[in-house]
Amino acid sequence: MLAGNASLAGEPLPLEAALGRTHPDDRDWLFAQIRQARRTGGPFSAEFRILTESGEVRWILNRGTLSHNESGVMQGLGVYIETTDSHRGSAISAALLTPDIEDPLLVAADRCIEAHTALKQGAHADLGSLSQVLLTGIGHAIARRRQS
Q: What are the φ/ψ torsions at residue 112 (nearest 5 degrees)?
C-alpha cells in the first residue's frame, strides 16, 4: 500500500520507494522526521496520508523504534496501521503525533518493540516469535480503538 506495489511487502526498500505514495502535502515533514530518527535512533510515531493508485486518500499510523543492528546499521522495527476510518468526516490536518506516554497500549508497544529487538539479537528465536505475536496483537488493539 505504501510503495504502490504489493509484491514488495516484507522486502528491504529505500525510503523513497517504501513511502512512494506519501501525500505530497505530508512528504517533506514526514521524510524530515524519518531522516532525524535515522540519525538519532529511538522511538518514532507519525500519522500521515498516502494516495492510492486511484487517487484515494488513506491515513497511515507508523509507530516503532530505530536502533543499530549487530552490524552497526540503523534498522527499524514497528507497525503501520491504516487509520483512514478514524478520519472520515473530520478535517484533521496531517501532523506528527505526540503520543500520550501514559497510554497503556502505546507504552506496551514501545516496551514490546524493545524486547523484540533484544530477543532478535540473542539466540532466542522462540521468544522472538512470541514477541512478534504480541506486537501484532497490540497493533490490532490500537487499530480497533482508532476505528471506534
A: -70, -40
Would you state the cell numbers that stand for residue 43, as one nine-digit string? Answer: 522511538
> Which are the contacts of 15, defined by CB distance < 8 A and separation ≥ 6?
31, 34
Q: Would you write out the chain's pLDDT as a tens digit for each of its 148 residues?
A: 677 777 777 777 677 777 888 999 999 999 898 888 888 888 888 889 999 888 899 988 888 888 888 888 888 887 788 888 777 654 443 333 444 446 777 777 777 777 777 777 777 777 877 887 887 788 777 767 655 5
| Spatial separation of the C-alpha atoms in residues 49 and 78, rounded to whole Å | 18
Report how many helices (DSSP H) and strands (DSSP E) the chain contains, helices first. 4, 3
Among 47, 64, 80, smallest CA distance to 117 is for 64
Q: Report yes or no: 81 and 47 within 8 Å, Cβ to Cβ.
A: no
Place of cell 514490546: 112
User: What sign does the CA torsion over 38, 86, 94, 48 have?
Assistant: positive
Task: Give me the residue label for grid cell 526498500.
Answer: 13
Is 37:66 a contact under the CB 8 Å cutoff?
yes
pTM as predicted: 0.60
